[in-house]
Design a protein that fits this description.
Distance between the termini: 55 Å
Number of domains: 3
Number of helices: 21
Order of helices and strands: HHHHHHHHHHHHHHHHHHHHH
Shape: globular
Structural class: mainly alpha
Strand content: under 5%
């Protein structure tokens, strides 16, 4: 059953403190905290599988509840409710990734993973390890990611969770791509696809096909990459999964850009920038701006490209990471622009781009380039 949205109420901190004191004195505080935790754990469980569903808007719905989510995490951790803490934190990792709360989310996951656990907690622990690996992946701390993913894969195999194994293989496929091992990546994603096919999980099959498409892209097998990406797109659109669609769009953009068709790549990038989700997910926006910057420089607009690259660099710093640079296949924009601009001009334009807000950077990217140089 879909969780019904209800009106939200706030109160002054002094009133909240008084209410907590009154509950404590009455002996009802722990029962109320438990009810509070039960409600928000149910919300997190409902949100997790549909976090990318465009018509659900889960990131927008969870953001105003973040303090409540924090309170539940503290309640579960302090109460040594290990399995619930692990499950709850694992459900929240994609929210932390998108919004972005990478460092805070990782802090909570590490605290949950440090709790003493029993054999019955292993499945939940594997999910939390996967979540921690996901956050460090987006922080571009790939050594730590490999450790978390490895522990998760081993644990999933121990408990016999085939779906978990499929997810772990999929994750390891991207580490192989980052490590310049496209053939190994393809093998891992094909293994993941085989399990998801056996489980008849259409959506995860589409993600696995995207992974295989990325392996083909890495080897510059553009036709195969495009075909696989488009086959996944139909599934993502049917499920209204905006993140999956953005991944397919990334493949199509890269096929055009790396093939030298910069005008086509620019058109695809601008289409992606028009999507409302792009402004709400800093990692996606920063990647789009980086790719557009490279395209603009290639089209003979170095100032415009440099400004976009600088804005993207600032977003990466604010976010605390972003899409893995090896997957973007980009050269240093300052070096590229220096072929047309002198040093002081490069510094000046870079400084201009660094001062753009998220909204200003997105608006500048969509601006007509005529007369902008």
């Amino acid at each position: 059953m879909r969780m019904e949205l209800k009106p939200r109420f706030g109160m002054l901190r002094t009133i909240a403190d008084y209410a907590l004191q009154a509950l404590s004195e009455s002996g009802d505080l722990e029962a109320v905290r438990a009810q509070h935790a039960t409600y928000f754990m149910a919300m997190a469980r409902e949100a997790a599988p549909d976090i990318f569903r465009a018509d659900e808007n889960w990131p927008d719905r969870l953001e105003p509840e973040h303090d409540n989510l924090r309170a539940v995490l503290r309640f579960l951790i302090d109460g040594h409710r290990t399995r619930e803490a692990l499950e709850f934190s694992a459900c929240l990792w994609r929210f932390w990734q998108i919004r972005p709360h990478l460092s805070e989310g990782l802090m909570w996951l590490n605290e949950c993973l440090s709790l003493p656990y029993h054999e019955d907690d292993l499945g939940a622990r594997a999910a939390a390890l996967t979540a921690a690996g996901g956050l460090t992946y987006w922080q571009n701390d790939f050594d730590t990611t490999r450790v978390h993913y490895g522990d998760a894969l081993e644990t999933y195999r121990t408990v016999g969770d085939r779906r978990g194994v499929a997810e772990a293989l999929y994750n390891f496929g991207f580490l192989a791509l980052i490590g310049a091992e496209p053939r190994r990546a393809k093998e891992l994603h094909e293994q993941s696809l085989a399990i998801y096919t056996d489980l008849e999980d259409e959506l995860q099959m589409a993600f696995a096909r995207f992974g295989i498409a990325m392996a083909h892209l890495n080897e510059r097998e553009f036709g195969s990459a495009r075909t696989l990406a488009l086959s996944a797109l139909n599934v993502f659109e049917a499920h209204r999964n905006w993140f999956g669609r953005s991944l397919v769009e990334f493949v199509l953009i890269q096929v055009a850009r790396l093939s030298g068709n910069h005008e086509q790549a620019r058109g695809l990038l601008l289409e992606s920038l028009e999507r409302p989700e792009s402004l709400k997910d800093v990692s996606t926006l920063s990647s789009l701006l980086e790719l557009l910057a490279d395209v603009e420089i290639a089209l003979g607009r170095p100032r415009r490209g440099l400004k976009l690259a600088s804005a993207s660099s600032s977003l990466r710093k604010e976010y605390g990471g972003g899409a893995p640079p090896p997957l973007l296949s980009l050269d240093d924009p300052r070096a590229l622009a220096s072929r047309s601009l002198d040093g002081p001009e490069v510094d000046e334009v870079w400084s201009q781009g660094a001062g753009l807000s998220v909204e200003e950077a997105a608006a500048y990217a969509r601006k007509d380039p005529a007369g902008d140089e």
